[in-house]
Write a structure and sequence with these properties.
The chain is an alpha/beta fold. It contains 19 helices and twelve strands. Helix 8 crosses helix 11 and helix 14 crosses helix 17. It is globular. Bound molecules: NADPH dihydro-nicotinamide-adenine-dinucleotide phosphate and ribulose-5-phosphate. This is 6-phosphogluconate dehydrogenase, decarboxylating.
Length: 463
């Protein structure tokens, strides 16, 4: 029997879908899962694709089933499970065999593993959820180009295509792929939070029912906001709950989960000194959402929201504006990381890679790719196409934030987007006061605007 082209460990949501995708594209894939019953169930349900699947019960059998030099994908939870799985697998492998971590690893773990392991190792970010993994995800690779080349034909075959162009690219060396995936997820958090805030205004400020909100999202999906996340939000808002004979959305607990990628993005932005306030606000909003008992107590003490007067068209424009600002921050962060970690991250390649397959895919990403192709060093805020949209929509974002604040409705991500815009368009800011304060209490020195002289001190230095 011919040996498998590739191996895959971890037949959970993503791994099983990815394995079927690989098999469907004509590659033979050997699979192994910690719980053997899952492997059998997977093979049983593979249908016609079973011909391209080798189900194995032990790691020895898995390794023996793959053609050498081998490539084995890990699709297990990030963190300790990856290290445990590598440790269990490593003794069975030959020196040239390659391990590919395709989960949502922290890029710092990926860099550590690459230096610790004396074998080829790739860290690839895979986005698109279960459906993407099954029918075409976006793939963000990190590692040695020669190692990437060994599996590129398979990754390109299984990846999503945007007008024929595969959304699978090597982003850069070592942890670059997992870093780009983390920033993708940071943008995902921000985009989701902005949509949730608009939903909140429609629900609590305009008294709109979930299906009505869903219909608006469906309309927006036909225009500039067209995206997978708007489509998803429409489906969620329109869904019916049999048990209550009402909207499903109304019976979902208002506490958002998180597995770490958004938080890592916020932490890394702080390390890099790159402002990503919309993404940070989205992470903080998830943290606040988790504090349900406290929110319930405080609602009794301080609760009460006024209705507000704002058009749905204004909300659509505000969301468009906020979305551009959060993507601008994500891309600016990627540019800062490229310098700090010496990666050759190319914003136009990343934008192209995100046009299909991934969770943040949207019509705007094609325009972003075009903007970066024309000027790779630009911030999206200054790219002519997006600068024009910001000019057109910033008033709507401002009106929405003012109206929501006036009514007592929380819009942390939209507020952060507006504050970012206002801060970044202020040629003379207010940090002169901070520099004065720092010099007063710590003699940290300041620069004079008139002479450019550095390390200046105020009169208090003589006291
Ligand atoms: N779900 C999603 O939308 C996406 C997930 N990801 C990432 O993909 C990875 C997998 O996620 P997902 O498929 O959703 O997870 P699931 O929970 O569905 O599956 C996890 C898989 O990992 C196995 N596993 C768990 N712990 C260990 C361990 N200690 N050693 C070996 N195997 C282990 C499980 O085996 P067993 O059957 O024995 O429990 C199972 O096969 C994660 O890093 C996740 O962040 C990336 C993009 C999207
Ligand atoms: O990577 C993904 C999508 O791109 C996963 O669905 C991830 O789990 C989403 O993050 P979180 O669970 O923190 O919301």
């Amino acid at each position: 029997m011919a040996k498998a082209d590739i191996g895959l460990i971890g037949l959970g949501t993503m791994g099983s879908a990815l394995a079927l995708n690989i098999a469907e594209k004509g590659f033979k894939v050997a699979v192994w899962n910690r719980t053997t019953a899952t492997t059998h169930e997977f093979a049983r349900e593979a249908g016609a694709l079973a011909a391209n699947i080798v189900a194995t019960e032990t790691l020895e059998d898995l390794v023996a089933a793959i053609d050498g030099p081998r490539a084995i994908i890990l699709m297990v939870p990030a963190g300790a499970p990856v290290d445990q799985q590598i440790a269990a697998l490593d003794p069975h492998l030959d020196p040239d065999d390659m391990v590919i971590d395709a989960g949502n690893a922290n890029f710092r773990d990926t860099i550590r593993r690459m230096t610790e392991l004396s074998r080829p190792f790739l860290g690839i970010g895979v986005s698109g959820g279960e459906d993407g993994a099954r029918h075409g995800p976006a793939i963000m690779g990190g590692g040695d180009p020669a190692h990437w080349a060994r599996v590129e034909p398979i990754l390109i075959a299984i990846a999503a295509k945007f007008e024929g162009s595969p959304c699978a690219n090597l982003m850069g060396e070592n942890g670059a792929g997992h870093f780009v995936k983390a920033v993708h997820n940071g943008i995902e958090y921000a985009d989701m939070q902005l949509i949730a805030e608009v939903y909140g205004i429609m629900r609590d400020g305009l008294s709109m029912a979930a299906p009505e909100i869903g219909k608006r999202f469906l309309q927006w999906d036909e225009g500039r906001l067209s995206s997978y996340l708007i489509e998803t939000s429409a489906a969620v808002a329109c869904a019916h709950d049999e048990a209550t004979d009402g909207p499903l959305l109304d019976v979902i607990v208002d506490a958002a989960g998180q597995k770490g990628t958004g938080r890592w993005t916020a932490i890394e932005a702080q390390h890099l000194g790159t402002p990503i306030p919309v993404i940070e606000a989205a992470v903080a909003a998830r943290n606040m959402s988790a504090q349900r008992p406290l929110r319930a107590d405080l609602a009794e003490r301080f609760g009460g929201v006024d209705t507000l007067d704002i058009s749905v068209e204004t909300l659509e424009a505000a969301l468009t504006c906020g979305k551009i600002l959060c993507y601008a921050q994500g891309f600016d962060m990627l540019r800062a990381a490229a310098v700090a970690f010496e990666w050759s991250l190319k914003p136009e390649v990343i934008a192209r890679n995100w046009r299909a397959g991934c969770i943040i895919r949207s019509a705007m990403l094609d325009d972003m790719a075009a903007a970066f192709e024309a000027a790779p060093e630009t911030t999206l805020m200054a790219a002519p196409y997006f600068a024009d949209i910001l000019t057109e929509t910033i008033g709507a974002l401002r009106a929405t934030v003012i109206a929501a604040n006036g009514a007592g409705l929380p819009v942390p991500a939209m507020s952060a987007a507006l504050a970012y815009f206002d801060t970044m368009r202020q040629a003379r800011g207010t940090a002169n006061m901070i520099q004065g304060q720092r010099d007063y209490f710590g003699l940290h020195g300041f620069v004079r605007v008139d002479s450019g002289a550095m390390d200046q001190h105020g009169p208090w230095a003589d006291d």
